[in-house]
């Protein structure tokens, strides 16, 4: 079985044991993804990358996991095939950021 | 090969063709995760879930993919095994939200 | 004395008594603004507006205040005249959203 | 007239000319505050504070203004006296971060 499918099944089992699907509309799941991303970012507030990773590695790992857990829930709720979506988005990014323009540059595609 | 490994390899190839690892410190990757989560959330601003999903499904799919793409980059850069991190976090959430307390309730664990 | 000046002076006095200006670079202040906005938003997770405001009014008030406190610190650190910036932005928004196009519509200006 | 009152009146006039109060429930305003804070933060992605402020000062000023504009709208919609809320929050922060513990330290109060 695919890893995404296996992890999604684990997350859905966790959700359903608690009867939580009733709360999981896409808008609140999108809010939750944003909140979890902030909780990851909070580990870096007032710190360099090195200080943050050195001091908060366990919390960083947990918050990163929470982000992907909510991504799996969101994908399930909205019928998105996450693996396919990622493959297609990498392809789109390839077109938005052609190597000859993007090489070594942090300019956003909209400013090319 | 695992799906996470295969997708990570695709994302790293995209990054390295552009010589972008030099920009990818964990703090800026955490910022990027937060920005992508906001871009997903923007699809729901002033809208119900139904309106948003009905109107913006293609952009929603792209932004969700971007979040996971940055999660793969962040995990790679900080040496986190993302599959293991997710499994461990589900286990922690099981302990934080025992079924008998959490069933049908949206109360946060810190308020039990 | 202007209210913005008086509140800014209070916030700077708080900061300087703790010798915190050393941490207050614009990038970390921008991160802090984003984190505080998330803490406000967290009050609305899984809730309607009415449930959130009814249940969490004290925390909502505190988090809103924290956002503006960081806005004052950010403006001070970057030399922005916040009152002038707000007046100019309202003027720009007037041009971006002409009444005849924007009346009763939640369409973003980029989609006009 | 107080500056906060005067700016709030300007923002409400802008809103009412467009008949937008119908969209401005507190939950969507909180989402909007978070989105605007992200737009400010985006100016700092992949950049030092100096690079960002040097390159994007006009956009930084606009996004900071948008944050405070939404804070004024949110306060108006929820009946919060923003000036009083800020004064009270500074007082609370004084108690949470006593000078003798907080001086020169970036430790969060919850870790004292």
TrEMBL record, chains A, B, C, D:
SUPFAM superfamilies for this protein? all-alpha NTP pyrophosphatases
Report any Pfam family annotated for this entry: MazG-like
Q: Check the record and name the InterPro entries matching this protein.
A: dCTP_Pyrophosphatase (IPR052555), DCTPP (IPR025984)
Tell me where on the tree of life, at the top rank, the source sits: Bacteria
Q: Which Gene3D superfamilies match?
A: MazG-like
Q: What is this protein called?
A: Nucleotide pyrophosphohydrolase
Q: What is the lineage of its organism?
A: Bacteria, Bacillati, Bacillota, Bacilli, Bacillales
């Amino acid at each position: 079985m695919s890893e995404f499918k296996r992890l999604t099944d684990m997350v859905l089992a966790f959700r359903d044991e608690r009867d939580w699907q009733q709360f999981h509309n896409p808008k609140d799941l999108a809010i939750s993804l944003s909140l979890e991303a902030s909780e990851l970012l909070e580990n870096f507030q007032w710190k360099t990358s090195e200080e943050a990773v050195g001091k908060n590695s366990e919390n960083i790992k947990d918050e990163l996991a929470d982000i992907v857990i909510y991504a799996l829930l969101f994908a399930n709720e909205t019928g998105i095939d996450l693996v396919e979506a990622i493959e297609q988005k990498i392809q789109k990014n390839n077109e938005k950021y052609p190597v000859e323009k993007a090489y070594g540059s942090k300019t956003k595609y909209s400013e090319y």
